[in-house]
Amino acid sequence: MKKIVSLIVLVVLFSSCSEFQKALKSEDIAVKYGVSVKMYEKGKYDKAIRLFEQIAPSYKGKPQAEKLFYMYSQAYYKTKQYYLAGYQFENFASSYPKSEKQEEALFLGAKCFTKLSPVYSLDQSDTDKAVDKLQNFIDTYPNSTYLPDANAMVKELRNKIEKKAFENAKQYNTISDFKAAQIAFDNFISDFPGTPFKEEALFYKLDSAYKLAINSVAAKMEERLKSAKTAYFVLTKYKADSKFKTKADEMLANIDKDLQQFSK
């Protein structure tokens, strides 16, 4: 029995492979279309794509085109070819605005850019594109069943963008460019007022202001110490029980001690 089953499987596989090869070499686009649909429905997306690539130009404007280009987009998506899938979904959505698949295509097209978004430490151009495309989807379909997923993705992407901006600002502190660090943290907080990194940004602004002050020439030290003290109060006003409170208090004590020399 096992041998018979194995033999049947081999025959089916050979038949499928033979059918695909014949379609690939055929000049009849109807044959190619039929086999491409069959390959797609069987989950053989790579084979379906090879046939879609051959016949797509010939089917533009034909009755079967909507189904073909939807499957073409999905085949790229299911094989994780997100650049190509994104392009095909967006092209489908613009070409068939009345299609029942239009909403899904617009969502998946935006989702493809989400998949292409790199780790926060790299260039975030694709992340920015993903946010724009998801926001366009949300604006177009505010009652969509995909809305919770779209909002969750936007939140995750924006968090990544914020982390990138925060780390860029923090880098100035790391390389001891304390003046630039303060400006960068001010810009960061202004650009992302609701950021989860705000407490940390305020602390590193204080740290930068303090280190700039104690490393200043005498003529600039008093003004910079006062600026650092202001940064301390901004941090503690924002979060009285800040996780940085102990370090911040130590800085304040040193600031007050150093300021005494200017009150004599």
Q: Give the strand content.
A: under 5%
The helix count comes to: 12
Order of helices and strands: HHHHHHHHHHHH
Main β sheet profile: none
Describe this structure in words.
The protein is an all-alpha fold and 264 residues long. 78% of the residues lie in helices and 0% in strands. It has 12 helices and no strands. α1 (2-25) packs antiparallel against α2. Residues 3-14 have low confidence and may be disordered.
In short:
The chain is mainly alpha-helical. The chain has helices spanning 2-25, 29-41, 45-59, 65-78, 82-95, 102-116, 125-140, 147-174, 178-191, 198-214, 218-238, 245-259.
Keywords:
disordered N terminus; 264 residues; 12 helices; mainly alpha; single chain
List the helices and strands and how they pair.
Blueprint: H1 2-25, H2 29-41, H3 45-59, H4 65-78, H5 82-95, H6 102-116, H7 125-140, H8 147-174, H9 178-191, H10 198-214, H11 218-238, H12 245-259
Helix pairs in contact: 1-2, 2-3, 3-4, 4-5, 5-6, 6-7, 7-8, 8-9, 8-10, 9-10, 10-11, 10-12, 11-12
